Amino acid sequence: MDFEYTREEEAFRQEVRDFLDENLPPREQRGSDFMENWLARVREKRWVGFSWPREVGGGGGDIMSQVILKEEMAARRAPPLGTCMMGLAWVGPGIIQYGTDEQKARFIPDILDSKYHWCTGYSEPNVGSDLAALQCKALRDGDHYVINGTKIWTTLAPIASWISMLVRTDNFGSEEAKHEGITALLVKLDAPGIEIRPIENMAGQRAFAQIFFDNVRVPVANRLGDEGKGWAVTISSLANERSSIGEVTAMYSKLESLKELVRRTTRNGKPLSDKPSVRRELARFEAKIEAMRLNGLRYLTRQIRGQPLSSETSVNKLHRADLEVEMGDFAVSILGQAGNQTRRQEGAVDNGSWAADALGWPSVVIGGGTPNIQKNIIAERILKLPKD
Length: 388
Ligand SMILES: Cc1cc2nc3c(=O)[nH]c(=O)nc-3n(C[C@H](O)[C@H](O)[C@H](O)COP(=O)(O)OP(=O)(O)OC[C@H]3O[C@@H](n4cnc5c(N)ncnc54)[C@H](O)[C@@H]3O)c2cc1C
Hints:
Elements: H1 7-23, H2 34-44, H3 63-75, H4 85-98, H5 101-112, E1 118-121, E2 137-141, E3 144-155, E4 162-168, E5 182-188, E6 194-199, E7 208-219, E8 223-224, H6 230-245, H7 248-264, E9 266-267, E10 270-271, H8 276-304, H9 313-335, H10 353-359, H11 361-365, H12 371-382
Parallel strand pairs: 1-4
Antiparallel strand pairs: 2-3, 3-7, 4-5, 5-8, 6-7, 9-10
Helix pairs in contact: 1-3, 3-7, 4-5, 4-6, 6-9, 7-8, 7-9, 8-9, 9-10, 9-12
The structure holds flavin-adenine dinucleotide.
The site of flavin-adenine dinucleotide has 21 residues, from strand 1, strand 3, helix 11 and helix 12.
């Protein structure tokens, strides 16, 4: 593996640094229009959808430059390059790979412009890890599908405009051929017959929902990929989801925040950063994150060779799950009583973000597949151990 950057790559790194010097003022100097301007500026640079093809509005950038962009953005703790989180991470890539020209023209510019949120409808009340057993059905009626059923734990559903979801269009009740007959649909969430009931998480946030579909009519033109072949669409989306969860730049950013926290938190008049046990813990986190980074370079090599991401993304997803819990517990423990105070509660540190963070682990631990499932994937598909 070659760890050196080319001259062009170093020049691009400098371009990003110059851009950040010019467009990223310190937090306390940012006005109310900062975010709007930031999103417009990075869009102008074609850094949103950086590696997406230019013909759909992306940047057409190579993968190595994208890594440099992410590294520099993370090092300066810049805001995200767009707010359509799921659109940018996996719905958009899915549409680019499987969508029709009409779907690309209709959805990709909106994702790049952060116009609205997407959510992902896979899980159902009795269907999670064994996703292929899904029951939400869609029957064909002329040039429409009619959906009946329910989806649950749908993150962002309370604020999203569209859902990318899986339905069963064939093989009802067949355990053997359950991967066949699944179809991916893109559905507008204000369609008649849809009811969204928000679910509150333990941090008090209404971040996800159960969605009920009662005879919801969706044009066949909104199908992503072929009828009955939604499993292939899902596998690539899940790999993208796991790879985005397993991304190391967010973890480095979190580690920097933790370092700052221990520098400004004192015990007996001394900063916690002076304590050997605290320093040891931070060093342990850093070593684990660095291991994730080096492992991530393997995915990068695959991508540079034009190979699709697959089961290997489970490794960093699993590591991040462990680290999120450990880092969250660590922050709460060093803050003592204040570590449990959430937003607007008296004594909350950094507006309760540490408590919210520590309580937010399920999204990275369970979302995108539980640790047991990641271990099964690693055992069976990477280590070639016998099937579960
Ligand atoms: C915060 C959060 C956000 C989420 N967001 C979304 C979303 O946006 N869209 C969406 O569709 N879903 C979402 N989910 C749902 C998530 O994908 C499922 O919760 C997850 O796949 C697990 O499914 P389950 O809850 O039905 O648990 P189950 O599948 O019933 O698992 C229960 C336990 O059994 C274990 N287990 C199950 N099968 C096996 C096996 N074969 N071998 C070993 N152990 C096994 C699991 O590891 C787990 O510990 C979200 C969940 C959370 C917590």
